[in-house]
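Quick entry, no commentary yet.
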Amino acid sequence: MSPDSDHNDLLLQISTNLKNTLITFGASSHQYQAVLQTLKDLLQCIEQHDKQHDKHAQIDPDMLSQAMEFLKLG
């Protein structure tokens, strides 16, 4: 499995977890904030990886868009 595929899989899992914690606990909950921080950390890690390897990861645009929407909520 390629690193780009791993990123997409992780984004999907984190986005799903974020959606579930939002519905279950609400945006101000510790659980939601923890998952949101995980998403932010992953996006930062992807960005750093791209800079180090001087290339852009092949991240699914729909998945990235969904992740960015969650960042707007948090």
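second:
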Amino acid sequence: MTESSRERVAEMKKSADRYEGRGDRLQRSDPERAQYCYSWASRLNSYLAGKESTDTTYRMKQKRRIDEKAERVRRRQELFGGEKR
């Protein structure tokens, strides 16, 4: 996630926190708009949840790659006494 999108998400969360609890009033006064707001918030939450899980998966794969490379380097140093082929 880029810095600007993080800021945008933080801003949206702040805005959502400010309006939390007002949903019931909005539901009574304008049900159609309330439905739109709820569906939009639901999409945002699912996007954020998916984004977090893919970020975590990516970090795990990256760590595994780094660990595997470190293991190959260590083995090569053991076999060849530190000299490169």
